[in-house]
Amino acid sequence: MPSLHFMLLKLAPLNTRIVGGENAPPGSWPWQANLLQTFPTYQIMCGGSLINSKWVLSAAHCFSSTNTANWNVYLGRQELSGTNPNEQVRTLSSIFPHPLYNSSTHDNDLALLELSTTVTFSDFIRPICLAASSSTFYNGTETWVTGWGNFKHNTVMPLPSPATLQELEVLIVGNNKCNCLYGGSIITTNMICAGVLAGGKGSCQGDSGGPLVVKQGSVWIQAGIVSFGYKCAEPNYPGVYTRVSPYQTWINSIIITKQTGFVTYTSSGKNSDSSTSCSSSPSITITPSTPTTTTTTAKRECLIFPRFNFPVGSYVILILSIV
Ligand SMILES: *[C@@H]1O[C@H](CO)[C@@H](O)[C@H](O)[C@H]1NC(C)=O
Ligand SMILES: *[C@@H]1O[C@H](CO)[C@@H](O)[C@H](O)[C@H]1NC(C)=O
């Protein structure tokens, strides 16, 4: 099983990246975006997710300003360098960091990016649905994080080579438990933690802004955005992600000309995290987000193409074998 690690933002603000992951089969994470801001002597790299044909979701900490100059967004990308036959590149026409983003606390660490022109969907480029505000993610829920990050990499060129998109399965760590692990007062209700508590696997530098996703039936839903963590893949320090579900209203207030698909993810069973308290720190009370009924009936691009259980490559092989 692959793993991802995060970097503490204060130490490495722009490049949280995956450690211990596995190469992702081409087309298996078709919403994954690669964001590069290129300067004469260095580049800044972040991840992102395509949420409809013209908008990408990422982390606010990837953007030092709303100046769109020098940013390129790559979709359908598999390798950081070399040939990417299914790739489409766009520049940005606007950057909307969340107005309440706090770089000290990492609270509200998300940004919406408007592409210069729409991308064309394909087997390798498809939007992901976002977790609606009424979603629940219990402790232990299986999720996936993807990215090109690595603890060896930083924001300074050259980019690593070879570098295939990495995927890693991580488990949700409830907010109470995560807050205990981080010392009791860091994890807000706008954050969601996921990791491998044994260590050795996690998101790390360069993964920032990338998606943490979960599958419900045939639908993939984004639960989090890579935000920060303590070092990379440290035991008992899960990665901390921006929780997507509290931002349904804000996202819909920015993206008004294109439909974004929100889907409620519902955890089953009982949330063991609700009975978790820290031995040395007071437990925090997690206020559930206000349930909002998704009444939208307009088409949601993230639901247009059913996703199968197989990566694109496997699917092609399956068809051939039936023939
Ligand atoms: C960020 O949060 C800290 C701690 O709550 C607070 O003191 C500070 O004023 C906040 N900064 C901004 C820009 O809101
Ligand atoms: C879920 O919470 C319980 C209670 O805190 C804990 O024992 C268990 O390890 C947690 N599971 C995960 C995957 O975090």
Automatic annotation (TrEMBL):
Keyword Hydrolase: yes
Record-linked InterPro entries: Peptidase_S1_PA, Peptidase_S1_PA_chymotrypsin, Peptidase_S1A, Trypsin_dom, TRYPSIN_HIS, TRYPSIN_SER
GO BP, one annotated term: proteolysis
Matching SUPFAM superfamilies: Trypsin-like serine proteases
GO molecular function list: serine-type endopeptidase activity
Region (Disordered): 268-294
Domain Peptidase S1: 18-256
A Pfam family this chain is assigned to: Trypsin
Keywords: Disulfide bond, Glycoprotein, Hydrolase, Protease, Serine protease, Signal
Region forming the signal peptide: 1-21
The protein's name in its UniProt record: Zgc:100868
Naturally occurring in which organism (per UniProt): Paramormyrops kingsleyae
Lineage of the species this protein comes from: Eukaryota, Metazoa, Chordata, Craniata, Vertebrata
